[in-house]
Automatic annotation (TrEMBL):
One of its GO terms (cellular component) is plasma membrane. This is Proton channel OTOP2. InterPro entries: Otopetrin (IPR004878). Keywords: Cell membrane, Hydrogen ion transport, Ion channel, Ion transport, Membrane, Transmembrane, Transmembrane helix, Transport. The chain crosses the membrane at residues 43-63, 75-94, 114-138, 150-169, 253-274, 295-321, 341-363, 383-405, 510-531, 551-578. Its main location: membrane.
Length: 580
C-alpha cells in the first residue's frame, strides 16, 4: 500500500486542516470539506456488503435443508474463500499503514475501549478451542469427508488470530489513505463475520433439533427422517464411536455460543472502524477522558453481592434444568424444571426492572451534562441495544398471544405469561438506563475542590462552622497569592466545595451498584439460553398453538438476537459503571 495515492478530496481536506493548525484565529473549514468521505465510496462499500451478505445468507439457509441440493461443504467453501480474502486484506492494511506516516492522522478515543477488546480476546480464545475440537472431530474420520471440512476450521483459526490482532491495534484508527479500498475491505470483513455467525447459528439450531429428535425416536426412525427431509451434517453418515471423537463432537457444540458472540463483537468493532475512515476529529471538542477501572473502590458491595447470588443461583437452576428436561422423559420432572426456571427468571427480571427504574430516577437528579459530541461508537451501541431487543420482544409477544388464546390455562401458563411480560418490561427499562448512562459526561476530577481544601489554612479535618467563622463577614473573596496564579476563592464556593462532592458521590455510588448488579444478572441471563435452557422448545403451549414448524422457526430466528442483546448489555453496563 503506497502512501502517494490518497483520494484527492481527502488530501484537500487534510491540507486544509494542517493550514488551520497554523492559524488559530481563522474559522474552521466548512462541514462539506470534512464530510465528503461519506458519499460515493461509502455507498459502494455498502452495496458490496449487501450483495455478499445476501449470497452468504442464501447459501447458509439453503444448506440447512436436505431437499435443496446445497451441501454444508458448499457453505464451508464460500466461508473459507471469504476468510482467506479478509486475511490477505488485513495484512495489506497493516503493512500499508505502518509504512505510511500520514495514513492515520488521528484516533477515535471512544472506539475499541479496552474492556471491549478484552472481551473480544476472551471469545477469540474459546473460538480457537472450538476450532481445535472441530479439527479433532473431523480428523477422526477424514476418509469419508470432504477435505474442506478439515480445511475450514484451520482457516477459521487463522482468521480469528489475525482479525483479533488487527482489531486490538487498529480499532481506534481514522484512516486517510486509500479510502475506498479501506472501506470495501472493512465491509468485506464485517460481512464475513456475519456470514460465519449465520453459519454457526444455523449449525447449532440443526444440532439441537437433531438432539431433541433423537430423544423421542429410535435410531432407525431418526435416520429415515434425515433421509426424508431434515438436513444432517455430512459427519452424521460417518461412524463416531470412539470416546475421544464424542468428546470433540460435544465440545465444539458447547463452545458455539462463544464463537457466535465473537463474530458479533468483531462485526461491531469493524463497523465503527468503517465509520471512522476519513474522519477528522476536532481535538478541541473531542474530549478524551482517561477513566480508570476500579472494581472495589467507592462501592458498598451490595450490587456485587446480589449479582453474585443471582449468578450462582442461575447456574444451579441451569444445571437442574438440563438434567431434568434434557436427560429425563418424565413429564412431572419436566414440569418441575419449567416451574423452577420461570420462578427464577421472574424474580431476576423483577429485581432488574426495579433497579433500572431506580437508576433512571437517580439520573434525573444527576447534575452532569449530557455528552452531545459526535460518537460513532455510542451511536452503534444504542442501535444494537434497540435492535437486538426486538428479538426478545418478538418471542415474548408471540408467547403472550399463544397463552391468552389457549385453553385450558395451568400454573405453568401463568408463570410463562408473567415471564413474557417481565421480559418486555426489563428490556425497556434497562435500555432507558443504559442509554442515559452512555450519554452522560464522565465525572470531572475535582481539582478546584481539592485545591480549595488544601488552601483552607492547612487543616486536615475542617468543620463548616469553623470555616464560616474564619471567613470575613463582608463577603469579600479570599485574595490569591500573586505567585500562585490561582483565581480568587469566594466563601460560598469554598463551602460548596466541601458539601457538593459528597452528594455527587452518593449518587455515583448507587449508579455503580446498580450497574454491577445488572451486569452480573445479564451474564447469567446470557448463559442460560446460550447453553441449552430454552423453555420455548419445552413448553407445549406455544408449540400446540403455532405448530411444530412455525414456532421453532420463530425461536431460531429471534433467540440469537436476544442472546446477543445480553452480552452487548454487559459491555455497555461495564462502560456505564466506569463512567459513573
Amino acid at each position: 500500500m503506497g502512501c502517494g495515492h490518497k483520494d484527492d478530496k481527502a488530501s484537500l481536506a487534510s491540507s486544509q486542516i494542517v493550514s488551520f493548525s497554523h492559524q488559530p484565529h481563522q474559522p474552521p473549514s466548512t462541514p462539506a470539506s470534512k464530510e465528503v468521505w461519506k458519499k460515493g465510496g461509502r455507498m459502494f462499500s455498502v452495496l458490496l456488503a449487501v450483495h455478499l451478505a445476501l449470497l452468504a445468507c442464501t447459501l447458509v439457509s439453503s444448506g440447512a435443508f436436505e431437499k435443496i441440493a446445497v451441501h454444508d461443504y458448499d457453505v464451508f467453501f464460500l466461508l473459507t474463500v471469504m476468510m482467506l480474502t479478509v486475511i490477505i486484506w488485513i495484512i495489506f492494511y497493516l503493512a500499508g499503514t505502518s509504512r505510511c506516516p500520514d495514513a492515520i492522522l488521528c484516533k477515535d478515543s471512544h472506539a475499541g475501549p479496552v474492556w471491549l477488546r478484552g472481551g473480544l480476546i476472551l471469545f477469540a480464545i474459546f473460538s480457537l478451542v472450538m476450532d481445535v475440537f472441530k479439527i479433532g472431530y473431523y480428523s477422526s474420520f477424514y476418509s469419508c469427508l470432504s477435505a474442506i471440512k478439515i480445511i475450514y476450521p484451520i482457516v477459521q483459526a487463522i482468521f480469528v488470530v489475525v482479525q483479533t490482532y488487527f482489531l486490538w491495534i487498529s480499532a481506534k484508527d481514522c484512516v486517510h489513505v486509500h479510502l475506498n479500498v479501506t472501506r470495501c475491505g472493512l465491509m468485506l470483513t464485517l460481512t464475513t463475520n456475519l456470514a460465519v455467525w449465520m453459519s454457526a447459528v444455523t449449525d447449532e439450531s440443526v444440532h439441537k433439533a437433531h438432539s431433541k429428535l433423537k430423544k423421542n425416536v429410535t435410531e432407525e426412525i431418526f435416520r429415515w427422517l434425515l433421509k426424508a427431509g431434515m438436513r444432517s451434517s455430512s459427519a452424521e453418515e460417518c461412524n463416531c464411536n470412539s470416546q475421544i471423537c464424542q468428546i470433540f463432537k460435544n465440545g465444539y457444540f458447547w463452545l458455539y455460543p462463544f464463537n457466535i458472540e465473537y463474530s458479533l463483537f468483531a462485526s461491531a468493532m469493524v463497523y465503527v472502524m468503517w465509520k471512522n475512515v476519513g474522519r477528522f476529529i476536532d481535538h478541541h471538542s473531542h474530549h478524551i477522558h482517561h477513566l480508570k477501572f476500579r472494581l472495589f473502590r467507592r462501592t458498598f458491595f451490595v450490587g456485587i453481592v446480589l449479582g453474585l447470588i443471582i449468578l450462582v443461583s442461575g447456574l444451579g437452576v441451569l444445571i437442574l434444568y438440563e438434567v431434568q428436561v434434557n436427560s429425563s422423559a418424565e413429564s412431572s420432572k419436566k414440569s418441575q424444571a419449567l416451574t423452577m426456571y420461570y420462578i427464577f427468571n421472574i424474580v431476576c427480571l423483577g429485581l432488574m426492572s426495579l433497579v433500572c427504574i431506580g437508576g433512571s430516577v437517580i439520573y434525573r437528579f444527576d447534575k452532569r451534562d449530557m455528552d452531545r459530541h459526535k460518537n460513532p461508537t455510542r451511536t452503534l451501541d444504542v442501535a444494537l441495544l434497540m435492535g437486538a431487543a426486538l428479538g426478545q420482544y418478538a418471542i415474548s409477544y408471540y408467547s403472550i398471544v399463544a397463552i391468552v388464546a389457549s385453553t385450558p390455562r395451568d400454573a405453568i401458563s401463568a408463570l410463562n405469561l408473567t415471564y413474557a411480560l417481565l421480559m418486555i418490561a426489563q428490556h425497556t427499562f434497562q435500555n432507558i438506563f443504559i442509554i442515559e448512562g452512555l450519554h452522560r459526561q464522565p465525572p470531572k476530577e475535582d481539582h478546584k475542590h481539592d485545591s480549595h481544601q488544601k488552601d483552607l489554612y492547612g487543616l486536615t479535618f475542617v468543620n463548616i462552622n469553623a470555616v464560616s467563622l474564619r471567613v470575613p463577614d463582608s463577603g469579600s473573596t479570599l485574595a490569591p497569592s500573586p505567585a500562585s496564579g490561582t483565581e480568587a476563592i469566594h466563601p460560598s464556593d469554598l463551602v460548596r466545595s466541601l458539601t457538593a462532592p459528597k452528594k455527587m458521590n452518593w449518587r455515583r455510588k448507587f449508579l455503580r451498584e446498580i450497574s454491577m448488579f445488572l451486569l452480573l444478572s445479564n451474564i447469567i441471563l446470557w448463559i442460560m439460553p446460550a447453553f441449552g435452557a430454552r423453555p420455548q422448545f419445552d413448553n407445549d403451549t406455544e408449540l400446540n398453538f403455532y405448530g411444530d414448524s412455525m414456532w421453532p422457526a420463530i425461536v431460531d430466528i429471534c433467540l440469537p438476537f436476544g442472546i446477543f442483546y445480553r452480552m452487548h448489555a454487559v459491555a455497555s453496563l461495564l462502560e456505564v459503571y466506569i463512567m459513573s
